[in-house]
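Hey, I'm writing a tutorial for new members on how sequence and structure tokens pair up, and I'd like a real worked example in the thread rather than a made-up one. If someone can provide the structure for the chain below, I'll link this post from the tutorial.
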Amino acid sequence: MFTGIDEVDWAALRHAHGSAEDVPGWLRSLASEDVCERQGALDGLYGTVHHEGNVYDSTLACVPFLCSLAARDTVPDRVCIVDLLVSIGAESGDARAREAVRAHGEVFVVLLGDPDARVRRAATGAVVRFVDGPARVLDLLRRRIPAEREDRVLLALIQAVGLFARRHPAHTAALDVLTAQSAPPNGPGLRLAALGQLALAAPDRLPADLVPAAVRLLRDRSAHRPRVPDHDGTDTLVRRIRRLRPSDEEGAQLLRTLHTALGDRAADRTVLLTGQLTSPDPMDRCNAVWMAATLFRGWRTDCARPVALVGAQLDTDHERLRDAAVSVLAELSGLAAPAADDLHALVAARPDLWTHRWERGSPTLGGPLKALTRTGDPRALPFLAQVLAGAVVPAGLGFAIAHLGPAAAPLVPALRFRLGRIPLDSPAADTLAAPLLCALKAAGDSDAAPEILRLLSGAPDGLGARGALTARAVQALDALGAAAQAVPVLRSLLHTRHAAVAAGALWSADGDARAVLPVLLRELTHGEPEVRRLAARQLGRLGPAARTALPELRRAAGAGPVRQRTSAACALWHIGGDPQPVLPVFRAAWSQSPRTRGPIARCLAALGPAASPLRDLVTAELAAPRRHTARRGAYAGQDIARDEALLGSCREVLAGL
């Protein structure tokens, strides 16, 4: 296995952390009988010779020894070694690495018949990627399918045939294999896998009743799957995290492949989700909830029916399913309205879910109450009032309350009280105030001016006029129409890093362009990029009173980052009323930076008939099936809301034309 390993000058080779002289020790440890030693060696290799997917000269030197280890049936954990080789040769995208692994491709041919089913499963994709001769590769896979008895290996073989079909479209015999495997007497899981691969490689070969057939196969498969208890009697952080993952990962992969293949066919995907969400099996429904989230984040579709079905999952004893549904609904804000009744029922029945307390850190708003509040449903108010009356305000509570808008008025006294109790000498003052200010702005409470002014004038140096809290407080006063009460403080800010936001608030307070124009022009020409964008937006608010800024705005609209050009162009229109210098900037930015489309569409709505030359952009946006931005995680809900706002602005533009 290690013949020639000492002849390699490992010290002269490099990996992610320097000299590769430690690599031969890890390679030898992969053959150790000690589990911990093998795992440490694998971690070492992933962290050095293949750190973050990179390939180094030491990586290439490892390949022959890794292949030799994978070929020895006496070596434990060979499946991990095969996975590492696939990652090096295929997933890294490095041509040198691909050829290095391909030079030892015959190893994977042997492993295709290995006694260990896990090794056979890992070898299937490697055969397609690293064995020469497409006809031979397809023959290997085709002959292996009837000989295989392990279901998971059979599924991997079908996926490998699908991969082969996409890599070698001229070999249509692969499609014949997939078509045959998608029909009886094969089992439902195998048939689902074949349908998914056909959908990816040759959609024209799919049956006309693809979606109903897939739902039937899913239910047949689930009816014969062993049941795993959802609750193990413990309540730990690890268990909470695991509940957010589908326990039937194999079933999830089968349906995820089909959803991926259907792509922009959002109507078909919605029908498929409906079938999944109405399955008798809770794990099928749990998988469907996460796939619904993917559809909602990325595609513009009528989601009322699947959202209502996600809401129906809240009335269940399966905590994994309930937690998944809550997590997804909390992302959707107003789009979760069809599930509001189910959310309200859960919140009313489970006060213990109103907040979530972590082992460390501040409590947060519980998922069900957060999701109900973000729908804008006023039925959340009594529960929120009780939470606000508690000893500690959950972190971020105000951001959720802001979704209620003016309906949050009954909570305003408690919000103001909490804002007035923030210790201004605390490093966390900004973190505590930001959500409360957001809620008060949304509620439109101009009577909160004294508490907001306290944030500006009562904090010590570093946390008041020069702190992160300042901009939020000024923006809140401006939005609430209460800036006139802070004029002296605002004037004192005109020579700080908050000059642009203070100038905008001063304009709102007294309408004196002479006082703010020089400040905004200074920030437009000498500020950081974000400050320049803000200065341009503030100049646009002045309208014709800022005509002396037109030459500088034209320069800003013609050069610099795309978002800066967009802000300057919007200001040009609001000040000069001439669409000619503005429309070309908008057209270029629309395609260059999708995140500029929201502000552009709002400005086009203000242009009215003058926006006619960009009608094609607006109509194409409304017809596009995908959201203009889509991310996972903490920002997913924000992106959905921004996209829905963009669509609303686009409709407003067309109405104005």
